[in-house]
Design a protein that fits this description.
This protein has 82 residues and is mainly alpha-helical. Helices cover 71% and strands 0% of the residues.
Length: 82
């Protein structure tokens, strides 16, 4: 699959959202193929895993995020829901 043209995808999505004519919806459906959606989801998943890994490295090196008592949470638990 070739690279995703994010700008073109954004433009057809915004056009379809703002003015739901048959032509705009057809343009969106032509651009948002299953392959494109899967590639976007894969990219999002990859970025999320990278963010979690980097956050773990930062917390491990600095001790940030280590708490005694309380409910914990913080940044690490918020990115777990990526």
């Amino acid at each position: 699959m070739s690279e995703i043209n994010y700008q073109a995808l954004r433009e057809v999505a915004e056009a379809a959202k703002g003015d739901t004519t048959w032509q705009n919806l057809q343009a969106f459906h032509a651009a948002a193929t299953p392959e494109v959606v899967l590639a976007l989801l894969d990219g999002n998943e990859r970025l999320c895993r990278d963010l979690i890994a980097r956050n773990g490295e930062i917390e491990g090196a600095s001790g940030v995020g280590r708490r005694t008592g309380g409910t914990g949470g913080g940044f690490a638990s918020s990115v777990m829901h990526c």
